[in-house]
Amino acid sequence: MQDAVATHGPANAAAGATFYCAAAGVYASTHPPVALPSDPSLSLVPHIFARLPAARPDAPALVDAATAEALSRADLRRLVSALAAGLRRRRGLREGDVVLLALPNSIAFPVAFLAVLAAGSIATTMSPFSAPAEIAARVRDTSPALVFATLDNVGKLPPLRVPVVLVPDAFHLADEGAPEFAPFRELLLLDSEPLPGPSVGQDDAAAILYSSGTGGRSKGVVLTHRNLIATVELFVHFEASQYAAPACDNVYLAALPMFHVYGLSLFAVGLLSLGSTVVVMKRFDAGEAVKTIRRFKVTHFPVVPPIMAALVHTTKPAAMPLECLVQVSTGAAPSSRRLIDDFVKAFPHVDLIQGSMVLNLTATRPACSDARLQ
């Protein structure tokens, strides 16, 4: 595999690798371009649900790793639709309004994110563990019409002239009548009169995500519905190229934070369109992750290098072989050669995929012939 990867470097471009342009120093895919939908009025959420397999509506889409509470594919459709309507009818949310999601990982996070977009509004996310001054700065920057927070972090919010709605970690908490979740519960009430859909299309803003990839303070990056639709299509084509088993049979462990673009694009956008099951951890813990992988028969685990290192150091393959695990994908930062070697030694049966976010993917797998490298 190392030889296979090496033949794709600039030094070997003259050996017949037509996808590398020496003059521009740019690599091009050997695969045909992915065609994006041509309908300019299409937005992300209808595209996701059009992609979502219609068979097995009771199959789990999202599962809470701690409690095993599950939302089925049908639940996902229903809750996103109900919450989007509630945001418009009961909170007066309009097209172009911004909603700040200061939420940790939970099965409610993807529902809230997709509902904001389905309402025609714009979602912006941030860590719920941010300092009050950081939250205040984000509110000044984006002028949200509404803030989603949790019971755990609402006390950290600075004084805001913005309505705050508490989102439960699990939907059964909203159903049990806890008064603190009454405003959220009201948003989910269905009305007999359906609302006309918002006039939002591919070129309209869908999300504002913040990046520290430039000098100075973090800056907001506007993603359109078309940007996120392209993410969906990337997942559809990438998953279809990997294994014989259908993507809807895959079980993913969501330990990466969904308030970051890496976790968001995976667990709240791309994977839901495939019908894969996403098992959600509120916060990563190596020991709990190993238990969760075994309990829910997780097949795919997207990580960053520190999580990969923790998995290697925590797991004793002889005692915890994790036979169900098929693939670990790592991105957002480079992995050292030593870490890669340690991982391959600990999990020789697992495909290790490396990439920057979800792009420019390469593969490391012992004794493997991978079509993506051909």
Automatic annotation (TrEMBL):
Family: Belongs to the ATP-dependent AMP-binding enzyme family.
EC number: 6.2.1.12
Keyword Transferase applies: no
Species per Swiss-Prot/TrEMBL record: Zea mays (Maize)
PANTHER family membership: AMP-BINDING DOMAIN-CONTAINING PROTEIN-RELATED, LONG-CHAIN-FATTY-ACID--COA LIGASE
Transmembrane parts of this sequence: 98-123, 259-281
Domain AMP-dependent synthetase/ligase: from-to ranges: 53-354
Descriptive protein name: 4-coumarate--CoA ligase
